[in-house]
Amino acid sequence: MDITELGIAALPAITIICLLAAQAAKATALDNKWLPVICGAVGGALGALAMRIMPDYPAQDYITAVAVGIVSGLAATGVNQVYKQLTREE
Questions:
Q1: 78-87 as b/e: b if 16+ CB within 10 A
Q2: What three-state secondary structure class fits 2?
Q3: Which helix (H) or strand (E) holds 7?
């Protein structure tokens, strides 16, 4: 059994796409306080889409799929903050 059979491969993919969306939003004049909202919204939309196109997605209904997507999207904000804290010079 490989990881794609579990449907778990979609979760890091959603996180990476949300991280890219946040980086694109940072390049605009938009205030950074909106980045978690953007990541959550993009993640929720991708979660619903992934449920429709991936047969092994770990959710079987839209509410769970959107919730999984939102959590994966918000993880992108956490990944970014961990990176910033580890590379910060004091």
A1: ebbeeeeeee
A2: coil
A3: none
DSSP code per residue over 37-89: HHHHHHHHHHHHHHHHH-TT-S-SSHHHHHHHHHHHHHHHHHHHHHHHHHH--
Tokens found for residue 24: 């694109």
| pTM of the predicted model as reported, rounded to 2 decimal places | 0.80
Dist. CA 56–CA 37, nearest whole Å? 27
> CB–CB of 43/14 below 8 Å?
yes
Burial of 43 (0-12, 13-18, 19+ CB in 10 A): buried
Q: Are 21 and 41 in contact (CB under 8 A)?
A: no
How do residues 1-60 score in pLDDT, each as one tens digit?
444 454 567 788 899 999 999 999 999 999 988 999 999 999 999 999 999 988 788 888
